[in-house]
Design a protein that fits this description.
Blueprint: E1 7-13, H1 19-33, E2 36-41, H2 46-52, H3 58-67, E3 69-72, H4 86-93, E4 98-104, E5 117-123, E6 133-134, H5 139-150, E7 162-163, H6 169-185, E8 190-195, H7 204-217, E9 226-231, H8 232-241, E10 248-251, H9 253-267, E11 274-278, E12 283-287, H10 304-316, H11 320-336, H12 342-349, H13 358-370
Parallel strand pairs: 1-2, 1-3, 3-12, 5-10, 8-9, 8-10
Antiparallel strand pairs: 4-5, 4-11, 6-7, 11-12
Helix pairs in contact: 1-10, 1-13, 6-7, 8-9, 10-11, 11-13
The structure holds 1,4-dihydronicotinamide adenine dinucleotide.
Amino acid sequence: MATTGITHTVTLIPGDGIGPEITRAMQTVIAASGADINWEIQQAGEASFEMSGELLPQAVLDSIRSNKVALKGPLTTPVGHGFRSLNVTLRKELDLFSCIRPSQSFHGTGARYEDVDIVLFRENTEDLYAGIEFEQGSEGVRRIAEVVADLGAGDIRDDAGLSLKPISVFGTRRIMKAAMDYAVANGRKKVTIIHKANIMKHTDGLFLRVCREVAAEYAQSAPEIEVDDWIVDAACTRLVTNPELFDVLVCPNLFGDIVSDLCAGLVGGLGIAPGANIGDDFALFEPVHGSAPSYAGQNLANPTAIMLSAVMMLRHLGEQNAAERVHKAIAEVIAEGKVLTYDLMRMRYGTTDGASSTQEYADAIAERIVG
Ligand code: NAI
C-alpha cells in the first residue's frame, strides 16, 4: 500500500456518549488504510471528570502540544454554572483559529441534494462565541450600561444580560487568508464572505472590509478565485434553494456555527459531517455532532463523521493515498446501500429495518479498503 511509511503519533480523545464506539469504528477503518498511526489515548470530558474531577486534565493539552495533531470524539459539557464548553476551551487554549467544515454529497444517501460540495471556514476565537459575557443584574452589566449611555450609544435595560461581539482585523485577516490559501491549493473557484455588515457595521462591517482587502492581495497571484459576499439571511435561503452556487464560505464564528449545520443538512445530516480546527501550531480533528447520549453504548451511531474527520487528518499528515482510499470506500459502501447505520437507512429507504451496527458498517468499509 502506498503510504509515506512514516509513523505518526496522534492524540486520540474518544470522548463521551457515542464517542468510544464511533472512535473504535474509525480506528478499524484507519488501520485498514495502512497509514501508520500511533494513537496516544487521552481522556477528557465526563469520563475524566468521574475519575479525577477534571474535565480537561493538563495531560491532554500536553499530549496535543507535543504531538501537534489530535482527533477527538464528542465531549459532553455538563449543564450548570461554572462549566465552560470544553470544545471552546480547547480551541482557545491551542489557538485553533480556523474551523473547517466540508459538506460534500455522497451518492445514495437519499439526502435532498446529490451535488453539494461546500467547504466552510469559521473563525473560531472571536465574535459572540468569545465567551465575554455578563450576567443579568451583575456589576458588569451596570457599568457597561453606564458607559454606553454616557457615550450616547443607546440604552441597555436594567434587567438585560450581555454578550460582547469582538471582531478584529487580526482575527479576520487570518481566517480569510486560510480560506483563500485553501481555495488556491485545492483548485476551488470561489470564496464567499458571509456577514451581516448592513446592520453590524463595526463588527461584521469590519469583517467584510478586511476580507475584501485580503482578497485584493490575492488578485495578482490567484486571479482564478472569484470572491463575493452574501448577507447571512439571504445566504441561508440561497444555500437551501441553490447550494451549487457556493464553493468555499468564510464566516465569523456564530454564523459559521449555524450555517455549517445548515450545510450538513443539505448532504444528509450530522452523522456524516466532519470538521477540523487548525491553528499555526496544532490541528484538532472532530465530527461536528455531539455525544448523542440517548444512543450511547448501543453500537448504533453513525461513525462516518469521525471517519471523515480522520480522512482530513490523514491529508493534513501528508497521507494522501490512505485518505483517498478511505474516502472512496465510505462512498462505495453508502452508494451500494446494503450496510448502513440506522440514520442512513432511514434517509435512504424511510425505515430503519435492516440497519447495521456501528461496527458492522466500519467492517464493511475496512473490507472494501483492503479487498
Ligand atoms: P448531538 O449532536 O449529540 O445529537 C443530536 C441528534 O443528532 C441526536 O439525538 C441524534 O439523533 C443525531 N446524531 C448526532 N450524531 C449522530 C451520529 N453519529 N449518528 C447518528 N445520529 C447522530 O447534539 P446534542 O444532543 O445537542 O448534544 C449532546 C451533548 O453533546 C451535549 O452535552 C453537547 O454539549 C455536546 N456537544 C458536543 C460537541 C463536540 O464535542 N464537538 C458538539 C455538539 C454538542
